[in-house]
Amino acid sequence: MTPKEEFIKIYTENIKRPGADKLLEYLKKSDFFTAPSSTRFHGSYEGGLVEHSVNVYHCLKDYLSRPRTKELYGMDFSEETIAIVALLHDLCKVNFYTTEIRNRKNDITGKWEKYNAYAINDTLPYGHGEKSVYIISGYLFGEGRLTREEACAIRWHMGFSGIEDKNLIGKALETYPLAFALHVADMEASYFIEGSKK
Questions:
Q1: Is the pLDDT score of 197 beyond 70?
Q2: Are 173 and 159 within 8 A, CB to CB?
Q3: Is the dihedral of CA 62, 23, 96, 8 positive or negative?
Q4: Which segments of the chain does DSSP mark as H helices, in order?
Q5: What is the CATH number of domain 3-95+126-193?
Q6: How is residue 117 annotated by DSSP?
Q7: For residue 6, how many other CB atoms are within 10 A of its CB?
Q8: DSSP code for 135
Q9: CA pair distance 189, 48, nearest whole angstrom
Q10: Alpha-carbon distance 174 to 103, whole Å?
């Protein structure tokens, strides 16, 4: 099963809120399933974004199933909540990347050569996590809207690797256990599952 097929399967089996079907259609019409996850780090290849989203889903499911995690958090999260925050946390990267031609020196021949590279072209400069929440909220609203816990998990999934005030990040991660869990899953997927891929 391809990452796209797995994403759609997890999404359609778990996310049933009003507007979820329209959000999936938006993703299918966008570059979500072909975009990279970054320009030169984890998932910096075609399809890296959807692959990363699926990896975060599996990491989050695993993390939240650990007995110690359940004991610490004192709560269980629904399958729908897990799917929403994991699969949709990086929607901010939809229509975010472009390709450009760059030059580099070939170490073997010593000659300069052209190559295709990903670059950022942010068509909606609204931040990172908050932009994902904004996009989702355009589809899942009313009875289907994100819960406060879900919205904060997506908003703060970058944790302390973000550029915001560290006290604010700490308070968010302390207040919303799902935000901390999503951050852990995102880092695990980024650095340990995808980090070594070229």
A1: no
A2: yes
A3: positive
A4: 3-14, 20-29, 48-65, 67-73, 79-88, 129-137, 148-155, 166-175, 177-187
A5: 1.10.3210
A6: E
A7: 16
A8: H
A9: 12
A10: 45
